[in-house]
Amino acid sequence: MIESSVSNCPVPSEQQPLNEYEELKSSWLFRDCTLDWREYITKLTCIWGLSWPIAAAVAAVSFPPHKQIAHFLLCGSAGASLGLILILLRLYLGWSYVQHRLASPIIFYEESGWYDGQTWTKPQEVLTRDRLIVTYQIKPIIQRLQISFASLAVLFVAGTIVWHLV
């Protein structure tokens, strides 16, 4: 029964929320959010580590490592975290967009270009299916990203306290 509702869907295949979700879930950056916690943290740590050389170069200009090692390390760590924040923000915005499209009862789509937008009201069974995906698949990812942002905020506060103590 669901298949007949989806097959009657006027929304182009690449703009259907379920297909957008599947595409996002399989893309190289966004699939990292679906890993178990250990692998997820490892990926975030790698991203942070890859940001370190640039951040360290900038921090070294203001705080020479041979004179002010603590300030250099704190400044470099904070700078490297900015790259991580940008990646997390991109992940959050992508997953939030798909969450909104799946949870919405009305879908906006473009038939052939930006100038001919249409809307489609989802049948109840499609809406129920999509909202189940939101509840059991996407909300845990959004929560994981929110925990990541909160953890970074705590680390920034801790770094600020240490900065003032040093």
UniProtKB/TrEMBL annotation:
Pfam families: CGLD27-like
TM region(s), chain numbering: 40-63, 69-93, 147-165
Superkingdom, natural source: Bacteria
Keyword annotations: Membrane, Transmembrane, Transmembrane helix
Keyword Transmembrane helix among UniProt keywords: yes
Protein name, as recorded: DUF1230 domain-containing protein
Species of provenance: Chlorogloeopsis fritschii PCC 6912
Record lineage: Bacteria, Bacillati, Cyanobacteriota, Cyanophyceae, Nostocales
